[in-house]
């Protein structure tokens, strides 16, 4: 994944209006391309590349797809000549801030009426993760989100879910229903036998507490699977 090196001018030798930082100050952040924004994060390039050329090489490696960039690990980023651990951490932190910004909509405005809406809320939280996480969306009587909550985090192939950890917050929040969600890092959206058994177990427990399990989504960067849509709840 290493970029091809070529000689170019140092950014400091460019006209001020062409430098990413100055361009941002003069014209606003939205005037910058993705590569220019990345160049600001990098701060500098390598001996043979400007920060802008290095940024273009990184973006080119992921086909200029920022979601794909979000799946890069620190090791992936440091494969580029001119990107050390500090720059890799900076890029990773910026991507994570972008991911969190997409997911911080006002909870009281989030009314879930379909699996697609639940997926859109959960996608920025878990779709691109390298490990599996299990989340619960706690809803009030009007199907508005009270709070999304991480229940457990595991490895690449699974995570352990304790029903008490799912329902304790539900009781405290006085929620009326729950939408379960977890990701499959492999991209395979088919539910495993363990997924089916856990869903059944949690649905039964919810009935005893008068808290309905409305759906269970399996999420990946390729899409989602809905237990409710498939008649499995």
Mean pLDDT, to the nearest integer, reads 86
CATH homology superfamily of the largest domain: Cytidine Deaminase, domain 2
CATH C-level name of the largest domain: Alpha Beta
Radius of gyration: 22 Å
Low-confidence stretches: 1-9
The coarse silhouette is elongated
Distance between the termini: 44 Å
Descriptive notes:
The chain is of the alpha+beta class and 233 residues long. It folds into two domains: 11-102; 105-226, Cytidine Deaminase, domain 2, CATH 3.40.140.10. Helix content is 41%, strand content 15%. The protein is built from nine helices and five strands, in the order αααααααββαβαββ. The protein has helices spanning 20-27, 34-42, 51-61, 66-69, 74-77, 85-103, 115-126, 163-173, 193-209; strands at residues 133-139, 145-153, 177-183, 212-220, 223-226. It has a five-stranded mixed sheet with strand order 2-1-3-4-5, with helices on both faces. Helix 9 links the parallel strand 3 and strand 4 (212-220). Helix 2 (34-42) crosses helix 3 (51-61), helix 6 runs antiparallel to helix 7 (115-126) and helix 8 packs parallel to helix 9. The longest helix is centred in the middle third of the chain and has 19 residues, at 85-103. It is elongated.
Summarize the structure.
With about 230 residues, this protein is an alpha+beta fold. It has 9 helices and 5 strands, in the order αααααααββαβαββ.
Itemize the secondary structure elements and their pairings:
Blueprint: H1 20-27, H2 34-42, H3 51-61, H4 66-69, H5 74-77, H6 85-103, H7 115-126, E1 133-139, E2 145-153, H8 163-173, E3 177-183, H9 193-209, E4 212-220, E5 223-226
Parallel strand pairs: 3-4
Antiparallel strand pairs: 1-2, 1-3, 4-5
Helix pairs in contact: 2-3, 6-7, 8-9
